Amino acid sequence: MELLHNIATGFSVCADPIVLLYCFIGVVSGVVIGALPGLGPSTGIAILLPLTYGMEPVAGIVMLAGIYYGAMYGGSITSILINTPGESAAVMTALDGYPMAVKGRPAQAMGMAAYASIIGGTASAVLFMLLAPVIAEFALVFSPAEYFALMVMGLTAISGMSGGNAFKGFVAAGLGLFVSTIGLDAIMGTQRFVFGIVHLYGGIDFVPVAMGLFGIAEIISSSAEESGEQIKLGPDDLKFRKMFPTKEDWRWSAPHILRGTLLGFFVGVLPGAGATIASFLSYDLAKKTSKRGELFGTGVIEGVAAPESANNAASMGAMVPMLTLGVPGSGSTTVMMGALLMFGMTPGPFLFEKEPEFAWGLIASLFIGNLILLLLVIGALPLFVSILKVRPAILNGVVMGFIIFGAYALGNDVFYIGVAGFFGALGFIFKKLKIPAPPMVLAIVLGYITETNLRQAMILAQGNFIAVISRPITAVILIIALLLAFGSPIKSLIGRLMAHRKAAA
User: What is the pLDDT of residue 7?
Assistant: First the structure.
């Protein structure tokens, strides 16, 4: 009964027209920001944070939360339509979303991305409401050793992103791990591969790398080669009914949406893990569990549904440690926690006791915001898809302009434009040599985190590696990682042995 009373309190707070208006503004702004290459939710929240000065705390935080999960969906728009992820968590959506668009199904891909995002976000809001205190306590158990094991499990996804050529996939991953080591050593502070370039001291940011490997490489490929894939729309492709996935699409996608939601939420709860890692893990899990996993990367609908449900679920999960422990779960929630302090709220265990209307109003807004997102997508999806009607030369020029602007905005420095350009050229070479780019992206994202947590764990264990990997939770995660990495070869070997035994009998 107390839970129902709290939820009723939250919805009564959100019934205020001003709160609803700011929730709507936040969601719309988030979708636009997520679609613009290079910005992403954390940058969008930081840019629009000054607008909340002087607002009622509930209205302000509801608007910022709307920007957060609106941007999670917005990133899928450019991923699907022009193969340029708007933000890092949308990288995996491009792997099957863009091929679906090339096959003449951009509306279905966009629709499934929206519904998977909304289902994942709404279900995670329910989990947030029911499990937040328990999960927050569990998250405190994770030390650097457990985070190291979790990152190793994430790296096992490389084999599933290699497009059938494991060697080329591991070559790309090796390059990514090298890139992740560039900069100042996080433990000792020594310089690594910076060659006296001051801009490299902070490492190479993931965002311009992704924009180059996917966006610029695609533009170069489509412009320089007559065989570049051009998406053509038929007269029926913009009709309202086209945005709804078929029953067959739902049959393939539903189990992966469920798994992606649960995985995304629990990964999001872990401070520092975030939506990007959740989307990588969810896509890899979907590929390993789908009956047509060998078709992933060619334009299968579940390849869109799995990462989209996970990244929205993770955005909800990241709010759990922020509100209950005062520990931000992602870069975006770090900015949001700063906003909470600005509003005079102290995130932590006593927030729900001292400011119940604020806390439960935020939770209730998650449900309302996802409903607004659904209505927005249904109304604006034909407009999004109609982008493909623009002539390729004009569209490529506009996209390149957004990429340049987004790269520059990362640090107000042309150096980031150069980084995006360099990796754009590298991405084009990858295309020519048929080397998959996703393993490199995954290695860049996870490499630095994996190394840092391993070295911290080794320091705590006084250099005893066995002590690091023998911790109970760490050991369980590493065993799961081994099963994920070698499960398919072992299964295949067992199948061949059984077939041989039957033949011998």
Answer: 80
